[in-house]
Amino acid sequence: MSDENMTEEEFLKNYDLRKYAPVGVTVDLTIFTIKNGKLSVLLIERGDHPFKGQWALPGGFVDTTESLEEAAARELKEETNLSIEDGYLEQLGTYGRPGRDPRGFIVSTAYVALAPNIETPTAGDDARNARFFAIDEVLSKDFDLAFDHADIITDGLDRVRAKIEYAPIAPKFISDDSFTISELRNVYEIVWGIQLVPSNFRRKVQSVKDFLVPVGEKRTSDLPGGRASDLYKAGSADVIYPPLRGPMSDPSIAAEDF
Amino acid sequence: MSDENMTEEEFLKNYDLRKYAPVGVTVDLTIFTIKNGKLSVLLIERGDHPFKGQWALPGGFVDTTESLEEAAARELKEETNLSIEDGYLEQLGTYGRPGRDPRGFIVSTAYVALAPNIETPTAGDDARNARFFAIDEVLSKDFDLAFDHADIITDGLDRVRAKIEYAPIAPKFISDDSFTISELRNVYEIVWGIQLVPSNFRRKVQSVKDFLVPVGEKRTSDLPGGRASDLYKAGSADVIYPPLRGPMSDPSIAAEDF
DNA sequence: CCAATAGTGTCTCTTAGACATTATGTA
DNA sequence: TACATAATGTCTAAGAGACACTATTGG
Fold first, then answer.
1. What is the DSSP letter of B63?
2. Do A103 and B239 lie within an 8 Å CB cutoff?
3. Cα atoms in the Cβ-side hemisphere of radius 13 Å centred on A223
4. Cα–Cα distance for residue pair A112/B66, rounded to 1 Å
5. A109, A146, A240, B188: most buried by Cβ count inside 10 Å?
């Protein structure tokens, strides 16, 4: 039967993807958190070939019964026990350079996740070694990451630094449901790597509609001294407008700071 | 030989991706242009199953010898004869919902391309029907696009509308190498679907460092009347700062206009 | 001259950045 | 009390939006 006259049903009955060149699809996660005052990313030590023994982003092959998003959410849950609602998960991009995986033509769709400071990532059933590394350590020249994961982490870092300007995702770095404006400012300072003027930061975040809602309680610092601070929780805003301009958006700052 | 004691070379010699579930990787392009004063997207009429006879984004399977970017650039060249330098090409995202392609588990990495108003897309060797459609027509309820391409076009449209705020890509819509500020403003007005105040737009784009460089010539309008306008060409800026705020970034405008 | 578009100037209001001042907590 | 941090207020300069005005073209 010629292709021309086949119905779509007939075509699909005869169709077999296996005839074509073998390819694979994986997801990889850049799970960011703030640990010891530094922006950090979760890595796992690979227990199998390829890159056995090297550090890599958590991830794995996508099951053909799940979407990419579901595969990423599954990995996030496995590694951090965070559900997609508590944490934050967003597609970063897809990496498909031939040769990036020695097993064959395997494209990987990378996701960015944000996590609060969780004590120890759940190692999962497999006895994999998993822990958070400071970003600057991971991106240093002598840190030997598997695959093209250094590229992915670099892109993920850029994404996070740019996105906290206009998306209300910074609270995802904070463990508690409620937080102070100083804690929020601290997140921005760590992610951007610059100091912010507290009073101006306060004015700006408070002027953003539905970004922060006052909880009505105060928290006294664990350090000696200092006025108790008001607590806030994340509001319903889905955009920060006007954005909190960081060093990513202004070329004049970016030139000197990165 | 157990997996435990294999070297990486031995592992890879035995490894065969074909053993796993069959998957496919395609690229799809949302090639935007401005035609008849409307933002438009290139569609091709599918000559083969699946979705034979329906309109779809140009694209196809990725060759395992090329990167995703190269595959997208190849498609762009085939469809519009634009090289990646003249046009503009950027990864949009990857779509992997099971069932999106009836042939099997096929993920598609979508790219956004911008093209000047080209007369007729090169139909290519294959006798496919290909032409630009106005965005609002394509995204109307009764336009029956193949696959999940309506989702991809919607996302691509959002990307373009957001990105012309801070990236100097608007000139890519203009055929000529040099252009007037009115022509540039026209691009923004069409993409955003709003009217801009000419004098304020002029002041803002001219204040962006290295965005526009004067050519030193004037162009007289083809219409009767009107002062001759200065010509500019795209400069070396890779970011527009401060951004040209459109309706995408300001929730108060977005609410009423979309 | 008129009509039409390009380009300049001006006014006001908002916002950002810098920093002073006041408030409230602990040692 | 001293000290530390939170919260508020103030000043100035830059930028945005609205719109008036001038310049240059063709008919």
1. P
2. no
3. 4
4. 25
5. A109
Q: Which DSSP string corresponds to chain A?
A: --GGG--HHHHHHH--GGGS--EEEEEEEEEEEEETTEEEEEEEE--SSSSTTSEE-SEEEPPTTS-HHHHHHHHHHHHH---TTTSEEEEEEEE--TTSSTTSEEEEEEEEEE----SS---TTTT--EEEEEHHHHTSTT--BSTTHHHHHHHHHHHHHHHHHHSS-GGGG-SSSEE-HHHHHHHHHHHHTS---HHHHHHHHHHSTTTEEEEEEEE--SSSS---EEEEEE-S-SS-SS----TTT-HHHHHHH-
Structure tokens at A240: 């920060």
Residue indicated by tokens 């982490």: A153
Rounded CA separation A161/B227 (Å): 45
Segment B7-48, tens digit of pLDDT: 888 888 888 878 787 899 999 999 999 999 999 999 999 988
Distance CA A191, CA A161 (A): 6
**CA A121/CA A38 separation, integer angstroms:** 17
Tell which A residues from 37 to 66 touch B, by Cβ distance under 8 Å.
48-52, 61-66
Q: Report residue B167 as tokens.
A: 């990236």
Nearest-Cα residue of chain A relative to residue B11: A49
Distance CA A30, CA A76 (A): 10
- What Rg do the C-alpha atoms of chain B give, in angstroms? 22
What is the pairing mode between strands A38-45 and A23-35? Answer: antiparallel
pTM value? 0.93
Whether B140 contacts chain A with CB within 8 A:
no
What is the DSSP code (8-state) at residue B228? -
- Strand pairing class (B38-45; B23-35): antiparallel
Q: What is the pLDDT along chain A (258 residues), one digit of tens a residue?
A: 556 678 888 888 888 877 787 899 999 999 999 999 999 999 999 988 899 899 999 999 999 999 999 999 999 999 889 898 888 999 999 999 999 999 999 999 999 999 998 866 555 555 578 999 999 999 999 999 999 999 999 999 999 999 999 999 999 999 999 999 999 999 999 999 999 999 999 999 999 999 999 999 888 877 777 899 999 999 999 999 999 999 888 887 776 444
Q: Determine the distance in angstroms separating the CA of A22 from the nearest CA of chain B, rounded to an integer.
A: 6
The reply to whether B17 touches chain A by the CB within 8 Å rule is yes
Instruction: Using alpha carbons, select from A5, A57, A1 the residue that is nearest to residue A31.
Output: A57
Is any atom of strand D within 7 angstroms of residue A252's beta carbon?
no
Pick from A91, A25, A3: nearest CA to B62:
A25
